[in-house]
Fold this protein.
Amino acid sequence: MDDPFCELRIYRVAAGRALDMEARVQGDLRTLFPKHGIRPLAGWSTMVSPISPSFIYLTPWGNMNQRSASWAGFYSDPAWAEVRNRTNGSSELVESYEIMFVRAITPWGGQAEACAFSELIIQTCAIGKTMAVTAELNLRTLPILEGAGARVHGVFDMLSGRQLPSLAFLLGWDSLDQRSAALAGLDERVQASRAAGDPVLLERAEQHLMRHLPVDWA
């Protein structure tokens, strides 16, 4: 993969240890990640999720060689072995993790720190309808979300790691009422499309409500 892409990671955290995970990220990883060229755009602790507690973060890469070299250096660093053993304590802090490679459809909008909470939506799409899905996204879906007050951190095309084709939406919200109004608008749009006999373009979705974890990646 020679083009720029992002890596979306979901760490499933051991029960009752969400605060330990946050301490690891804001403490040791804050300097250890950048030492090896790993600088996430943002990270979040889940509030409501199919796999809570979990920690989710998004990292940009120029190409796959850059990513591979950075992670190889990180995992072979004795400092990481020390941090892992110390912060794990008597049991593993991270029970499992999932890696997804994604490519940006919209520019990264940021502003995660300014939102009451954020949301990751992993949305499966109709096969063979890439151009139609892109048009629906730009002409209807994003305007409905933004019109209701959502802050679009970013929208990404899933390259690997999940059922394909899929999209990943990262959104910011100021309140649950705002989110409910935006999603109701999308539901109305879907129902109107089905009533008109339009093809179904966006299918089942997985949703994670999250709290932004501020980190100064030194």
About this structure: Residues 176-195 form the longest helix (20 residues). The two ends are 27 Å apart (CA to CA).
